[in-house]
Amino acid sequence: MNERDSEAVAAMLRARGYRIVADEDDCDILLLNTCSVRDAAEQKAIGKAGYLQQRKKRQPDFVLGILGCMAQNRGAALLDQLPDVDLIVGTQKFHQVPGYLDNLRAAREAGVPVGRSIVDIGEEEGSQNTIRDHLVPGPEEVDGVERQVTAFVSIQQGCNMACSFCIVPKTRGDERSRPMEDIVAECRALAARGVREITLLGQIVTSYGRRDYVHTEGTSPFVQLLERVHAIDGLARIRFTSPHPRGFKEDLVAAYGRLPKLCPYVHLPMQSGSDRILRAMNRPYTRDRYREIVGALRAVNPGMYLSTDVIVGFPGETEEEFAATRELFTACDFDMAYIFKYSTRTGTPAAEMAEQVTEEVKERRNQELLALLQQNSLRRTATLIGTEEEVLVEGRDKSGARFTGRTRGNRVCVFDADPRLVGELVPLRITRASVSTLYGELRPGRE
């Protein structure tokens, strides 16, 4: 979601006449889009901004801005640590950034002292509808730039779930959905530009439109949206993130059996395998219900790929409760997982809970699950060696020498290919596998 917000701001700036540069040392304006999910993310952003402030001593007109969740969470208080920051813009005001930068530039060009930093973290009705612009190569970049074949589309922002460990409701606000017609039009326009795969984004993406649209014959608004995006010509694949287990009712599970463009990959946050801890987290499901969802998805498609989120060391988590998490984690046979040590976020209910777990215990539990994940991922990828997978060719890999793409199960692949295949679905024979990456060869005649 932060990537999508950053891209939208960049697209707005380019439309206003600003030029995006590749190297931060070459810019006159630098905007840091920040995260607040964990304290480490905020500290990293503050450290980076502190370092960047020093440029003002040798480049007085350099403009430094902080955007996004940390800006929303801390607001003007950031100026106590970062007094030379020019712009602090929250999560509902991304679309105001070009105007604020124009004002800063105009004042400086006129020789008018700017004086105060601009701080805007207010709520704005309809702000969810402003994240719609996509960055396309500028006229000076067309030659040699491979076309975009995947895209993120924001469909919903904010969260009403109130998980006791999470600061997102504070930084992103209440749940708000975009109009379905606007989303479908955006997806259609992307497909017309050559985008083959779209990922629908939301804080709780499966809650999309629940206050704005009615269930039709047992079909939720989110599944209705999936159906409409599925019908777009030229689009080959659909993904979405991040859902909530409570959103996986019968209609969404069944969609994986009847919508062939919907990739058989689900990111399904588990967080804990202990019912008591889930209640303390304010997660409205049980371990048994979670296993039911996993079983239902694999019944619809036995080849379903699953990833998850897990928090270890939540306040009060005992060894027995961690063992329950480890058991459920193993039973669900995940392909990938994001495993986090619980991070105290001031202002959340969990921060005030008794029996905070020590960092030493968190680290041990974290390493136990990471070891299980590595073993499982290696085993799962090893089963693909010798098989043929459909891969969407996305572009060159980081080395620039080979090409990369993903399977329908969201596995990253690296292979040799001709540039003309970018945007094509190709059969790839898997010859080697690591924990997270597959390596392969194209079928003769397709390379």
Shape: globular
Q: Helix amount, in percent?
A: 25-40%
Structural class: alpha/beta
CATH topology of the largest domain, which one? pyruvate-formate lyase- activating enzyme
Compute the number of helices: 14
- Uncertain runs: 138-144
Number of strands: 17
CATH homology superfamily name of the largest domain:
tm_1862 like domain
Query: What is the annotated CATH architecture of the largest domain?
Result: Alpha-Beta Horseshoe
Major sheet: 5 strands, mixed, barrel
Strand fraction equals: 15-25%
The strands making up the biggest β-sheet line up spatially as 13-14-15-17-16
Radius of gyration: 23 Å
Number of domains: 3
Mean pLDDT: 93
N-to-C CA distance = 34 Å
CATH class of the largest domain: Alpha Beta
Task: Give your account of this protein's structure.
The chain is of the alpha/beta class and 447 residues long. It has 14 helices and 17 strands. The chain has a 5-stranded mixed β-barrel with strand order 13-14-15-17-16. Strands 1-2-3-4 form a 4-stranded parallel β-sheet, sandwiched between helices. Strands 5-8-9 form a 3-stranded parallel β-sheet, covered by helices on one side. Strand 13 and strand 14 form a beta hairpin.
